Task: inverse folding
């Protein structure tokens, strides 16, 4: 039951933001945030995870927070921009010495990091394009009084 409610809520968010297909983008966003957050915190598969979180943060900044201005107290970009910058820096700079990537000897070359960044930007463009070309939901006609 919880799964269906969760999926309905995610689907509703995707539809309100006019993503097509709404359910697909809602699930992608949820899993990037959930699985990506755990992997990012652990420092495992860092270039890939940081690229996914960067892409998600960029879409969130552009679609949700930018129209509300800068300050976070008004729902603006102040805090989401910090998340965007942090994921970008780690995507391009690497996970550091205290990460599972370092402990397991997983090393990403600069070329792989740039490829992850390019993939992230392509994902952002696809997500934004999927919402741009979807028709706005039709509004209900105003109610008329019976006479």
Result:
């Amino acid at each position: 039951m919880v799964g269906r409610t969760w999926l309905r809520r995610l689907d509703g968010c995707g539809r309100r933001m006019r993503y097509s297909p709404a359910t697909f983008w809602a699930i992608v966003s949820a899993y990037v945030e959930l699985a990506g957050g755990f992997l990012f915190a652990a420092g495992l598969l860092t270039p890939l995870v940081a690229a996914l979180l960067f892409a998600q943060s960029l879409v969130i900044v552009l679609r949700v927070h930018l129209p509300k201005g800068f300050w976070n107290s008004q729902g603006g970009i102040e805090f989401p921009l910090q998340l965007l910058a942090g994921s970008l820096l780690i995507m391009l700079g690497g996970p550091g010495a205290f990460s599972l990537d370092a402990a397991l000897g997983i090393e990403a070359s600069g070329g792989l990091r740039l490829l992850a960044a390019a993939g992230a930007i392509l994902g952002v463009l696809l997500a934004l394009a999927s919402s741009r070309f979807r028709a706005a939901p039709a509004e209900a006609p105003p109610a008329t009084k019976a006479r």
Notes: DSSP finds six helices and no strands in the chain. Residues 2-132 form one domain. The chain has a mean pLDDT of 82.
